[in-house]
Specification:
By secondary structure, this protein is of the alpha+beta class. The chain has one domain. Helix content is about 25%, strand content about 10%. The chain contains 2 helices and 9 strands. It has a 5-stranded mixed sheet with strand order 5-1-4-6-7, with helices on one face. A hairpin with a 3-residue loop joins strand 8 and strand 9 (about 220). The longest helix has about 50 residues, at about 10-60. The chain is elongated, with a radius of gyration of 23 Å.
Length: about 240
């Protein structure tokens, strides 16, 4: 007969403890990897939006489409819908880390205008200073950048950013209000990706940045096409985002 060797209770407990220790070490790394993966998907969404915006500008006199607050009441003329026609692949307007419900699919039939405010339109909102605006008679209003090419430093001017999950019926950001509303945090989700958010710039490059890298009261303003990259008379902007 052969002697059967078995693990003692202490040996089993040691193995279990080692496995638990390894799991505890690896879980944060796995969570960070998953978060990084979601951030990459979000950045790709923003890049595709930028490419569609460039295609639109090439075809429509170097302009950006209207927004819901641009004086044009027809949703089919708003940028979220218009840019879907300028992309070969479907544009994804939802960030994987955006936990809001009831997202609209702008490539399909939209609900009645009276119902639109009940939906989350997108994880991304356009800089209102870029959108085409018209008055009550549908006559163009000369916005800060009537033409995208008029932006003096397009690599320093934000075209779109990530909006707060809680905002329904919103497709634009009002940077001209940052100073008297206490900053951009009420409109932009500034920390969706480990303290950063993704921003699309006027030259269509995308960067993941902390909000203070794009706007800091009295020091930096990368949102105003007329004044960027400095705010008022402050000199010496930091290097352009990568």
């Amino acid at each position: 007969m052969y002697d059967r060797k078995a693990f003692t209770l202490i040996e089993v407990l040691v193995v279990v403890a080692v496995i638990a220790l390894l799991v505890a070490i690896l879980l944060p790394s796995l969570a960070a990897a998953r978060a990084q993966g979601r951030a990459v998907l979000c950045m790709n969404n923003v890049k595709q939006i930028g490419l569609a915006a460039r295609m639109y500008a090439m075809e429509f006199r170097d302009t950006f489409p209207s927004s819901a607050h641009g004086g044009v009441p027809e949703p089919k003329t708003w940028w979220l819908h218009v840019l879907t026609r300028c992309s070969k692949s479907p544009l994804l307007f939802q960030c994987p880390d955006d936990e809001a419900d009831s997202f609209l699919d702008w490539s399909k039939s939209l609900p009645p205008s009276s119902e639109l405010s009940k939906y989350r339109w997108a994880s991304y909102a356009v800089n209102y200073l870029f959108v085409r605006q018209v008055d009550d008679d549908s006559k163009p209003i000369n916005a800060y950048s009537a033409k995208v090419s008029r932006v003096r430093r397009p690599g320093y001017v934000v075209l779109a950013g990530e909006s707060q999950d809680s905002l329904l019926g919103v497709d634009h950001i009002h940077p001209e209000r940052f100073e008297w509303t206490g900053g951009p945090e009420g409109q932009i989700d500034t920390k969706r990706h480990r303290g950063k958010a993704h921003y699309l710039f006027a030259d269509t490059h995308v960067a993941g940045l902390r909000i203070e890298e794009t706007w800091k009261e009295g020091e930096r303003n990368w949102w105003d096409p007329e004044h960027a990259p400095t705010w008022h008379t402050v000199a010496g902007p930091p290097p352009p985002p990568q």
